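Lab manual, section 2.4: Encoding a predicted structure.

Procedure: take the sequence of the chain (204 residues), apply the prediction step described in section 2.3, and record the output as structure tokens. A sample record is shown.
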Amino acid sequence: AAREELESINIPDELKPHFQFLPFVFFARRHRLVLVTKDKRDTLSPKQAATILQHTFEAPELLQSHGKADIVVEPSRELLDTIFKAQRLRSLIIEITPPNPDDFEEFEKEIFENMNEQRAGSYRIEMREADGLGLSPDARTKLLAKVAQSNGSVIGVSGQRGKTKTVSTKSHPLEEHALFLPNLQPRSEALLIAGAALLKRILN
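Recorded output:
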């Protein structure tokens, strides 16, 4: 807000804002933001943080100068195994949205370059079982899913009729517990160390 706009705001004393301070660290080269979601009584869910960022990037002036930005919450790393090891995988949806240019693995580069050549804003494949035996995804499909978990979404539906289970990477954010000694270490330093270790796990 401009200075004159701030000066014109008058908040009544009885309307006290609920201020919370939850630190975060942004790894610019990898375009990853790691944040504290719970600290004593202060909380902010990954979904809430993603919503705040998405609304921020949808501001008209940012859309005009930088284009549309997609916010993806990193999912739990066990989810893809859960999807592919499920008994009778009935359907699988993989959707990829290209991120900012970066240092990717060769397979990721191939996908994003191919999308760019075709001027595609997203890439989606949907597979359904041909019989009652379930899908049997090959190595390439699993690689596509691995790319999509950090750059899009993966949804798998498994089980028998009437007892199906849907697992989506959008519903299970990656969360990690980190402890630190406040008398010996600043909270921001502890977050930076824990965030760097978490980022290494994600990229590996």
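Check your result against the sample. The chain has a mean pLDDT of 87.
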